[in-house]
Amino acid sequence: MHRLALLAFPLLLAACSGAERLSRLGDEPQMAGVTNPTSDPRWRPVSMPMPNPQDPPLANNSLWRPGSRTFLRDQRAAAVGDIVTVLVSIQDEAELENRTIRSRDNSEGMGLPRLLGLESSYARLFPSGIDPSQLVQANSTSGVNGTGAIRRNETVTLRVAATVAQVLPNGNLVVTGRQQVRVNSELRDLTVGGVIRPQDIASDNTVRHDRLAEARIAYGGRGTISDVQRPRVGQELLDIILPF
């Protein structure tokens, strides 16, 4: 029974750790929603030196509005429902290498030559006899040698039109957009979302993806080709529940 319990224990651990993955069996990886960063318990306000406040410039008898890009009106997105083009240009390259070597050798010993006068009773408790000065002796040795390496090179260049979904009290814009392209039986799906400043929108009503705060960019697809590249549901199930 003890051996069966020892064999079943890793299986129970694997089942518990894979419960969350099992609930997502067959689903695409979920992206985190755009949330308020200050709701994080680890968030702390930042205090920085600030310039002295200045009065806004007077614009009496002038048809030109401060911050406007055109003579009549600003063509950039500024209100809910306006459209802005997000330029996605990701060139990600990372190369990491690390190695860890650790070793430890322990030796412990304990004896009780005298203990409240009970040493005379050792012979009755242990007929074969013991040495009170060497009651406990333990030795242990452990070692770890690990090597890891990561090499990644990704390039993504896209353009997607997003809609202003919300105007925050400080004037920043919450944008979200989705684009789908279907070729034969393969569907490509691009989603983008985040928070931008109106000042970061260029005169041609475009904004770079690295100007998006809380950016969420996903580029994937589904269809006949994606189905062939993805493992079957049975294989994913075995990867979750098997401990080895």
Automatic annotation (TrEMBL):
Give the range the annotation lists for the signal sequence: 1-19
**GO BP annotations listed:** bacterial-type flagellum-dependent cell motility
Keywords on this record?
A: Bacterial flagellum, Cell outer membrane, Cell projection, Cilium, Flagellum, Lipoprotein, Membrane, Signal
Q: Which PROSITE patterns match?
A: PROKAR_LIPOPROTEIN
The record's subcellular locations are:
Cell outer membrane; Bacterial flagellum basal body
Pfam families in alphabetical order: FlgH
Question: Where is this protein primarily located?
Answer: membrane
Annotated GO MF terms = cytoskeletal motor activity
The record gives the membrane topology as:
Lipid-anchor
- Return the GO cellular component terms, semicolon-separated: bacterial-type flagellum basal body, distal rod, L ring; cell outer membrane
Q: Which InterPro entries match?
A: Flag_Lring
Report the family membership.
Belongs to the FlgH family.
Which PANTHER family does the entry link to? FLAGELLAR L-RING PROTEIN
Name the job this protein performs.
Answer: Assembles around the rod to form the L-ring and probably protects the motor/basal body from shearing forces during rotation.
HAMAP family according to UniProt: FlgH
Q: How does it assemble?
A: The basal body constitutes a major portion of the flagellar organelle and consists of four rings (L,P,S, and M) mounted on a central rod.
Protein name in the entry = Flagellar L-ring protein
Q: Which organism is it from?
A: Neoroseomonas eburnea
